[in-house]
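User: Need the bound-state model for zinc ion:
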Amino acid sequence: VKKVIFFMIDSFMPDVLEKCLKEGKVPALAFFMKKGMYWNECTTVFPTMTASVDCSLITGEYPDKHKIPALIWYSPEEKRIINYINGGLPLLPMGITNCAKNVLCALNDEHLSKEVKTIFETLEDQGRTSGSINLIAHRSYHKYKLKLPFLLRLATRFTPFNDVTGPEIFTMGSLVRSKLNPPLPWSWDESLFRYYGLNDAFAVRFLTHLIRYQILPDFTMVYLPENDHQVHLHPERACEILAKVDTHLQKFLNQFSSWDEAVEQYLFILTGDHGQTTIGKSENHNIDLEGLLTGMQIATYGDKTIGKNDLVIANNERMTYIYPMKPHADDEVIARCKKEPRIDLIAWKESDWVHVCSGKLPGMCRFRRGGEIRDIYGADWAVEGDLQLLDLSLESEGQTVRFGEFPDVFSRLYGALYSQDIPFVVLTAAPGYEFKSAYAPTHLGGGSHGSIHIKDSTIPLIISGGNDHLPAFKEPRLVDLKGYILQVLCN
Ligand SMILES: [Zn+2]
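Assistant: Bound-state model below.
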């Protein structure tokens, strides 16, 4: 059995990849594509934010099962807004200690549902080894102590952190690391100025070390974050930015006697977590939620009175969760959003029905699990009302549903709405727009994501070096990759 190496490139987009290919800017990616299969329309998870997507990747489930609603969400148990770190702004009122604890410990060992198994856990159950390099979702059976650098300990006022769990081979930069034999020598890519190793160069250097000393596990996840950071700022330079990621992949391939040898020895999967949508330059491309909901009391980060207000806003760039704290506060939110044409979808649940309306189009529709209509992934649904709201078309005498602007919209909206069992409203922004609220980062003239729209939801998928194991995906989804990897490694 060939070992599997998985490169997760943050904000990797098919149109950017194809433009780079034409211009000859990404020789390593072009090589992987030539030696394997390529899909330009793989559908990712909603909300299209790294935290919820990565948890789906490692569990093979949508958020209704794995219970990580998004990057930012409200926990009624803890009575606070949870943030797995999005930019620097929320760090001020929330405190760096909370953010660091959320992302390093709580995401994996408190919030991620114990009802689901991660790919690292399943592989170990099957007697296989696995590794995770810098992916924020890494729960498994091995416990590790955090080794926070002095400045970070100072910033977090020396509060003790719990142990974190991960697979046998595990690293989050230099913050936590499994014992390696031989150990990885220190380099500048682990310094404070390079985010303690949470960068592309470190991730690829770590992987190269595993291969050089023949300690590579059966399955290794490698997370490359820098594409996302750069494209947020300069979507017009997306090609150059992806070309830079490619230089790291070239460096990786160059350690083999030939590039061909790499794909002869290993099976490679390369994909992204979500796309990005370019946001207009003028101020009105930020949908100001406090303005839209003026007169209502809104809780923000670090608010001591949270829960006593009318609403809590959890802003995830091009999607938002709005939690009513008082009866009927959600009705008022829906009524106001319906009059806002920059809002694409407005969705909420009533018992087992998901209700949808829009700020752009009139009408209503609702759907639930179990019914006469089957989607292209084999799930059954009942649907009523105005189908154009979700851009649905019915085929085969109304028995099959096809998705349009909102890929896999039934399962994905359902996944977000049932990620928590409290009432809330889901909002998504129309293309070109994003939500603005206190402390949330905004990107006028830049790139942003989070919504269920096809532009944020479509990622490229490359599977290379696996001629004996090519998958039969027609319409691949990120949630289907766990099953494929297990089939390759455990059959
Ligand atoms: Zn991003």
